[in-house]
Amino acid sequence: MDLIISTVSGTVKKAFNNAAKTGGLKVSWCDSGSIIQTVMESEENIFIYIDISEMDNDQTIALTNTLSNKAHARFGIIDPHGNVEDIAGLFFRGASDYIGKDMLKKGLSPDRLKKAAEFRGEAKKYDTTAANGKKKFILSGKDWQNIMENREYTFCFMFIMLEDQDIIGKKLGDGHLQKVLDAFMGIVAEKVSHVNGKLWLWSESGGLVLFPFDGKRCECIKLCIEMTLDRKIFSFEDFEFNTLINFRTVLHLGNTMYRKKGDTGNIISDSINAIFHLGHQADPGSCIITEELFDFIPPGLEDLFIDGGTFEKRRIRCLKKFL
């Protein structure tokens, strides 16, 4: 797929031209004022990278919200100055990639751009290509005691997102929707804390939770099963709004640099991209684990999962649906 780049920065143009030349990609350019027009006029699937350095936060949110509603268009964000504080928010509004200032300095990988640009329509949700090679573990330990900032570790990631915001808003009124979102965040924070989980990247209706990994077990798998099966119970026991809540979860094992919540603005990794992509493509209410976690499913619980095919060359399993 050809890439369309919207930028006026010579540095950004050089980085993409170098990657395109190395990887055999074709790039074209458009100015910021014609992004929507370019998308609307295209009759084919397109991928567009947008330099947001000249946009304020409201303009960025408005543009990404508009693009997320275009079925044939996918987009990535270029942030040359590291201005974005809420990277999770970009992914929740449909972004497929984020390129910050550190990545621009290091140089762009053609393979990364190709992977980000692979359009996944509903019919292409899963593929049958062989699974990815596994990345070496950098053990973070059984708890947070020895985890240091600005170092890379292997973590168990949980993507979790509340479903049916529109329905909840209509039922309870728009004025109560934020209270519902805050309550959901509080419930998730309390549940994951029992197995050393911490909310890490969060934006309105959900986000990423990190769990330390000692190479022996991933207790978040059992927790995720319990939360999925018990959501009707804690919807009414722990949720003060007397309404049934539904959510999707994805679990993945991967590497990322660690920084404390609130100081994660420039952190991005293949693992974070992978879990956000899968999380947004997952069926509502589903619970999915990636192949990196298959060996850590607690004994006796393997049969609760069924084969889910592959996603972005990675095998996945889905929790069976129960009445």
CATH architecture of the largest domain: 2-Layer Sandwich
Shape: globular
| CATH fold call of the largest domain | Alpha-Beta Plaits
Strand order in the sheet with the most strands: 7-8-6-9-10-12-11
Beta-strand content:
15-25%
Structural class per helix/strand content? alpha/beta
| Average of pLDDT | 81
Within CATH, the superfamily of the largest domain carries the name Nucleotide cyclase, GGDEF domain
| Distance separating the two termini | 42 Å
Q: Report the count of strand segments.
A: 12
- The total tally of domains equals 2
Key structural traits:
single chain, 323 residues, alpha/beta, Rossmann fold, Alpha-Beta Plaits, 7-stranded mixed β-sheet, 5-stranded parallel β-sheet, 11 helices
Describe the structure.
By secondary structure, the protein is of the alpha/beta class. It has eleven helices and twelve strands. It has helices at 10-23, 35-41, 57-68, 87-92, 101-106, 110-117, 165-172, 174-193, 220-229, 231-237, 270-281, and strands at 3-6, 27-30, 46-51, 73-79, 97-100, 151-162, 198-203, 206-212, 247-258, 287-290, 305-311, 314-319. The chain has a seven-stranded mixed β-sheet, sandwiched between helices. Strand 3, helix 3 (57-68) and strand 4 form a beta-alpha-beta unit. The N and C termini lie far apart (42 Å).
